[in-house]
Design a protein that fits this description.
Two copies of one chain form a homodimer. Helix content of chain A is 28%, strand content 25%. By secondary structure, chain A is of the alpha+beta class. Chain A folds into three domains: 192 residues, Aldehyde oxidase/xanthine dehydrogenase, a/b hammerhead (Aldehyde Oxidoreductase, domain 3), CATH 3.90.1170; 323 residues, Aldehyde oxidase/xanthine dehydrogenase, molybdopterin binding domain (Aldehyde Oxidoreductase, domain 4, 2-Layer Sandwich), CATH 3.30.365.10; 152 residues, Aldehyde oxidase/xanthine dehydrogenase, molybdopterin binding domain (Aldehyde Oxidoreductase, domain 4, 2-Layer Sandwich), CATH 3.30.365.10. In chain A, the strands form seven sheets. Chain A has a seven-stranded mixed sheet, sandwiched between helices. In chain A, α16 links the parallel β27 and β28. In chain A, α13 runs parallel beside α14. Chain A is globular and about 85 Å long. At the A-B interface, β19 and β25 of A face α1, β19 and β25 of B.
């Protein structure tokens, strides 16, 4: 039987629910030292001195390190874009002569105890001459300025019957995973080899970066698999601490531990999203899109971090979305300001671009007098137009929209919303005199980034199956998904499959869990490896049972002779027959019932969806409530529908946060205004509706053997768009809402503009 | 250049000499519990009760476990001999209803602290009814009775011109490695997976045994590579603690540690050697051997442990040694007595058999009036007679003496002894009235047991090379030897090679370090794997440099174009080109510059040697001193002569211990008389001569690509024989010395028998 598509209970839950998860902070080693990072209290300044003597004298302090003690190292860009050189803007591990944002690491205190380290860190005396602070994006330094697009946009705008133009801001916010970062690094004093717990997302890449920065061979570093309390793009990138803690362990020849607190987290990990768009669309007289153009200022904070300019690039490359846009001109300027540097946050570039594009379409629909769903239906690419190649590339891959029926899904989503009574409820609310609105947003996602993932599948002599994959277990359920894929291909019970993700010794060719790639690319690698093991098992069983391979079949954990129910060998027995010294193993055959396979892919796959949001605005307070929310998402094939639904609901929660609540604001001096959860407002259960989910599997991905399209981000992608549209609808604005998040304060400012 | 044969400094020494070795007792985990084993204080008895209540109430005691708490498990035989069933004699993990030797584990106390555990263990109340105790070997129970041999021995004895017969006892002693045993077992409470530090010698085998006993898949258990302070056969076999400590870790879901103390060690680890021989040889009138027969009682202590009856089997199979013995009849009875169970100790069966055979030849030489060297020369197999097949098998392999010139080596050894003035010194001592003697013993060793060893060789992107081998690092220098073999095959500097031995996750097909197999079988596997990496590197370099493979050559860490010194790529660059996503890597090629290879071998190889010992006996005290000692050893090829010499010198030290000092004696009640180093006498530097070593490489082993024969045991094999011969010579005994060790007390008893 197949286990793909089954609602198999999460394998992770057995340990997580019993408190047996192994998170980075659960790791300890006898004799470990504790690190506390001393961070800049000012946003921009020249360092005159960093005085460490007082801190060094505190009892229990082992070492205080400043940039002067370190080799000169900057953190490299992970996702390079050809032709864009960011070397001048890379972040140093510790600030040398200049600090550029509040929270920038300046020194490190190492002590026998975390409390001593924290207390002593406050005794490190920073003497910094303040420099002028840039907080406004448009006043920043241009780190990169590039364009993506195709077609004759200028002519299209000349020929247009209608031109709709607007400005739109997406606010600075980011992921705040439940578990802040943590690292435990153990060192073998004899060899200098490092055992690292706490690197998630891209452990092999981080291992390689660290090896290069330390000047050692990558095989001297072993990053262990751990649990992680969420990733969402920010957790697991290579940050200054990812160099500092291992470097200190080697320097001091002792285990070193560091745990980030929440206040640090909010200024230290990548921020995201902050962009100012000036977008315009040209339509013919029937409302058919002729062209779009967008001029974006992207606020990247103080440095280019590991993501380089990939968020800006994705913003432009994905901006046309699922629509037939004959000509597109995008320009983006990456601006450096004195704020925390930025990177990806779940649905990077798409959350921003979708919000802007869909708001523009809403404004255009009103302006052209066309129903907004009808306008979209008119301009969505038709199923027969796919695959559709856009003359752009992102993440090093050409944009080729692979398969789907965008109009069909829009219709299904609207029908589902009607079936669930969304429009009826809207009417009812309005009848009650409430300021209610419905938002509809269509979006295109991308997932399954290559170039590869590698997986090992092996069977033990008890018949237990192990999978060593390159993904990481961030809470998303990837162990369950890969176990189902293995069980399906190998024909075993998922219960006997154990999946280990992100251990660099077990899987040195892993590419990590990001970009919604784990199921698509990682899953396909596991699928290939499991099929190879199956094939090998049949070959060996044929020798053991002395029958032709063609007469053999799998029987959930066994290989049996067709038509002879009593004649079979278990996979465990086959594994025994594969051991060295076995009479069934030929001299030059590799031992073990195991296979390593690599799945390589050139193009991404493009899932797509529709969000429908019903909002209820309190005109007095400006508070926006979201009583109903629907996500329709086409993902090709759901390995485990329960996990897909969970991903989508979680994404909506984050999307509502970004659309209504979450924002990293700064004052004029560059002081962050949101350094606790009292200021950085997360949606709670009270702010969230029961999310309706419609997962469709109508358009399997042609580019991978499972047909999967990745489901990790679509709950978030159009949340800003749908809520902006709903608020605009509620307030009956003629123009755009102009800015996310739609905090109560901003909504109060908008209520005067509406006609309702 | 080749690095084979070079005196490369030991790679292990950098960490060991700086105190950075990682021995089992160096491992700790926060929250670990400590185990203390409660051992039987009496040699034989029926257990009426094991009362644990008092011990359990001690503050800090977490659990007290008796056999009743455990699954019923007995430790299986590792080296099975077909047709011999020892199931009734296997040792249980904890004694159930009967104790059979002093030191047998009866209960286990687990506590938060090792001192609490030890104190509480004394509060476990054992109520045991004493049963009759068997201490004398001949009174024991026969666990196995078998014969090995060939030819018509009876007729040969009928036809003989001379028959020489004698009885001979080899005393019970064993290895006492500097580091007693220790285990740290960490458990992942989520999965039950075990991380084990402390299993040496055969980690993969022990992992598999443990998995079977625990009823889990072997891949759930990871045995880590550690340093070990000596092995010598006893350390690293599967003992009761190897089940108890992991079982407790899983049961209590906490890390558990156990460290053996010396008093425990002396009663707990395998004893060895104790045999009573009744041996006879038949000669023709010219002193040509016609046949030998030997009837052996082998004292195996209370149980059959992991070695089963392999020591008895080896005793018989190797007894004819390097001699032309036309007919041989061996019988051995394996006797169970109420003493510590036995296993292998370096040169198992050969130390015993060589001592007995060579003493017989010395007695025969005198009786036949032939010089003892001449008698040996006459009866040694001639070089032209090799390979020589004996119609016997041992360790599952047929006995085929592969290559050599036994007579030639005897002549070389005697010439070397003369050159070094042995005979002159003998004459000088005698001229001074001292009771001096010279012993000469010729011996055959065996090494390189199959069926296989597996090795991984991989190159990192810095050009560093890693080897994952199945051996274990017991102090013998195997890391250095395998690094040299790798460096030679791959053409890199041994300094860039790191060897990891005995990690079951890194090398799941390792067979371990024992039976002098690591260099022969493990080294050959490494050699094959390194050659495969070299071949792959040339293939990849050919793509990178766009030249034919035939035009490429290795250049110590690089691949270069012949005749173009400037045109080359480093192995690190080649490794980069082998990463997934590299343009040089073809779609279906495995990534990584790495290879796993298995070396399989059906037959052992047979090194051989000569020991010459000069002794000086104090007739008053019986004290035997050894002023001069020569080992001549043919080992085919020395990878590192310094290490070979070190092995031989260390072996002589242990051999002198077994020949003169070390003995586990028991009183009539089965109480061990040697439970500290005050009673179990080890040779110290004062007792040891400077050992002269003559390593020859005249007869490379035909059965492996390196030609190596294994050099781990030959310093010990004939030490009992040579010293027995020398003492006999010194005392001018007409008959044999009858018994080893030749303690001062026994020598005093012999002085009256001599004629000198």
């Amino acid at each position: 039987m197949t286990f793909i598509g089954e609602r198999v209970p999460r394998k992770e839950d057995s340990r997580l629910l019993r408190g047996h998860g192994r998170f980075a902070d659960d790791q300890d080693r006898p004799g470990q030292l504790w690190v506390r990072v001393v961070r800049s209290p000012i946003a921009h300044g020249r360092i005159r001195s960093v005085a460490t003597a007082t801190a060094s004298e505190v009892d229990g302090v082992v070492r205080v390190v400043t940039a002067a003690d370190l080799p000169d190292r900057r953190i490299p860009v992970r996702l390079k874009v050809q032709g864009i050189n960011l070397d001048d803007h890379l972040q140093p591990v510790l600030a040398t002569d200049t600090v550029r944002y509040v929270g920038e690491p300046v020194a490190v205190v190492v002590a026998e105890d975390p409390y001593v380290a924290e207390d002593a860190a406050e005794l490190v005396e920073l003497d910094i001459d303040e420099l002028p602070v840039v907080v406004e994006t448009f006043q920043g330094t241009v780190a990169a300025d590039f364009r993506l697009g195709y077609g004759d946009v200028e002519q299209a705008f000349v020929d247009a019957a209608h031109i709709v133009e607007m400005e739109f801001d997406v606010g600075r916010h980011s992921a705040v995973p439940m578990e802040p970062r943590a690292l435990l690094v153990d060192v073998d004093p004899g060899s200098g080899a490092l055992q690292i717990h706490g690197m998630t997302k891209v452990p092999v890449f981080n291992r390689d970066v660290l090896a290069t920065m330390l000047g050692v061979d990558e095989n001297l570093i072993h990053v262990h698999a751990i649990d992680a309390g969420g990733g969402f793009g920010v957790r697991g990138e290579f940050y200054p601490e990812d160099f500092l803690v291992p470097w200190l362990a080697r320097e001091l020849n002792r285990p070193v531990k560091w745990v980030e607190d929440r206040a640090e987290h909010l200024v230290a990990v990548n921020h995201s999203r902050q962009q100012h768009h000036t977008i315009a669309a040209a339509f013919d007289k029937n409302g058919v899109l002729l062209a779009m153009r967008d001029d974006v200022l992207h606020d990247n904070g103080a440095y280019a971090r590991t993501h380089g300019i990939i968020v800006p690039e994705l913003t432009l490359a994905m901006l046309p979305g699922p629509y037939r846009v004959p000509a597109f001109a995008g320009r983006i300027r990456v601006m450096l300001t004195n704020k925390t540097p930025c990177g990806t946050y779940r649905a990077p570039g798409r959350f921003e671009g979708t919000a802007v594009r869909e708001q523009l379409l809403d404004v255009a629909a009103d302006k052209l007098g066309i129903d907004r769903v009808e306008l979209r239906r008119k301009n969505l690419l038709d199923a027969r137009e796919l695959p559709h190649t856009r003359e752009m590339s992102t993440l090093g891959t050409d944009v080729v929209l692979d398969s789907g029926d965008y109009v069909g899904l829009l219709d299904k989503a609207m029908a589902e919303a009607d079936r669930l009574g969304y429009r009826a409820e809207l009417a009812s609310l309005r009848a009650q005199g409430r300021t209610a609105g419905l938002g509809v947003a269509v979006f295109l996602e991308k997932s399954g980034l290559g170039p590869q993932e590698t997986a090992d599948v092996m069977v033990g002599t008890s018949g237990a199956v192990r999978v060593h994959s390159g993904g990481t277990s961030l809470g998303q359920g990837i162990e369950t998904v890969l176990a189902q894929i293995t069980a399906d291909a190998l024909d075993v019970d998922p219960a006997v499959v154990t999946v280990v993700n992100g251990d660099t010794a077990l899987q040195p060719f892993g590419a990590g869990s990001w970009a919604s790639r784990s199921t698509v690319v990682g899953g396909s690698a596991v699928h290939k490896a499991a099929l190879a093991v199956r094939e090998r098992a049949i070959q060996m069983a044929s020798r053991m049972l002395e029958v032709s391979e063609d007469d053999l079949e799998t029987r959930c954990g066994s290989i049996g002779v067709r038509g002879a129910p009593g004649s079979s060998v278990t996979l465990g027995e086959v594994a025994k027959a594969c051991r060295p010294g076995s009479p069934h193993l030929l001299p030059d055959e590799p031992a073990g019932l195991a296979a390593r396979r690599r799945f390589e892919v050139e193009h991404m796959t493009y899932p797509y969806g529709v969000h429908v949001a019903l909002v209820d605005v309190d005109r007095g307070t400006g508070l926006v409530q979201v009583p109903r929310y629907l996500v329709a998402y086409e993902i090709g094939r759901a390995i485990n529908p329960t996990l897909v639904e969970g991903q989508l609901v979680g994404g909506v929660a984050q999307g509502i946060g970004g659309a209504l609540l979450e924002e990293f604001r700064y004052d004029e001096a560059g002081q962050p205004q949101a350094v606790t959860f009292m200021d950085y407002l997360l949606p709670t259960a009270a702010e969230l509706p029961k999310v309706d989910v419609l997962v469709t599997e109508d358009a399997p991905a042609p580019g991978n053997p499972l047909g999967v399209k990745g489901a990790g981000e679509g709950g978030l992608t159009a949340a800003g768009a749908a809520i902006a549209g709903a608020v605009r609808d509620a307030l009956d604005l003629p123009g755009p809402v102009r800015r996310l998040p739609l905090t109560a304060e901003r909504v109060r400012g908008l209520t005067d503009e509406g006609t309702r």
